[in-house]
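note to self: dont lose this again. the chain is below, predicted strucutre after it. 95 aa total, dont forget to put it in the shared folder this time
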Amino acid sequence: MELSETLRTRNCELCLEWIPGDKNQLADDLTNQKYDHLPSDRRVQFVGGDAKWLVLSQLMQKANEFHEELALERKRKPRETIREKAKKKRRIDPW
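---
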């Protein structure tokens, strides 16, 4: 979602094309953290905490709100025992 929104706000498209591994040494080198042949002036140090997220920050906020609501509900309502759950299930589904 984050990538999709970032591309949308920048009016960009992402076109992916599969290339066999034996014909894409660059991808293998990046995967294996071999950066020798890449120009150092083109490297960007990514720090996740410094990034401006378009979707993730809102998603995390909603997840925290949900977690807090769930914790309050669990405190308010006592948990059913396993035996009570089994009885309830038998009433609903006799098989």
